[in-house]
Amino acid sequence: MDLDSRYIEIEKNVKAVRARIESASQKVNRSSADVTLIAVTKTYPVSDAMILSQLGISNFGENRSSEGAAKAAEIQGTWHFQGQIQSNKIKQVLTWANSIHSVDDLRHISLIKKALPDDKNISIFLQVALDGQLHRGGVSEEILPLLAEEVLSSDGLMLEGLMAVAPLDHDPHRAFSELARIHSVFSQQFPMATNLSAGMSNDFEVAIEYGATHLRIGSSILGVRTSPL
Ligand SMILES: *Cc1c(COP(=O)(O)O)cnc(C)c1O
Questions:
Q1: Which domains, ranges and CATH numbers included, belong to the chain?
Q2: Which among 156, 85, 94, 167 is positioned nearest to 126, based on CA atoms?
Q3: Smallest CA separation from ligand 1 atom 10, residue
Q4: Which of 52, 68, 107, 164 is most buried by its number of CB atoms within 10 A?
Q5: Predicted model pTM
Q6: Dihedral angle sign, alpha carbons of residues 143, 147, 153, 159
């Protein structure tokens, strides 16, 4: 596909997603201005991220450090790392990412703290596992305060809030209402942790209903990925 037709296709998808965010927000009396759309560009070329940037998208999500580094070098914006993070990649992630959505390990927090340059800040979302589905990443509710304390005691690490992925085989209403309850309890103890990263292509309208502030949307904008990431 040439770049002009790709531009037209992505523009159409972005408009449609923005309209759905708007109407889902209105439905629950929220302002769509409080909902950040993160365009997940993983597996797609830097030229797609460039088109998104031209369309006014300023938040981008990636799962692989080398891929994120290459795109972030070309495209200005806020870059979010959102996948399972490997210890040996943390240092590289910190060179390009502004935000890490999937922190679920005390040792990773220490490594981030150690590797973070003095003049840099990094936003941290703690990943919570819903319905005990630990294999998709995340910790159980009871562990969150321990991780949060570690983030708060580390210079340059900012505790943004919580992140979750809804289990594939469950009703997203059930998953996100559980997440909303966990976030409400958590933010009584950690009032700075106001943000909630939840909602992907298949369930972002439900996530908005339950208070999501950061949507991570890939395939609805760029198309279904052929590689399994
Ligand atoms: C790939 C991915 C997304 C985007 O998924 P889509 O279904 O394509 O919108 C969001 N969050 C995480 C953690 C992902 O790995």
A1: 3-222 (3.20.20.10)
A2: 85
A3: 216
A4: 164
A5: 0.97
A6: negative
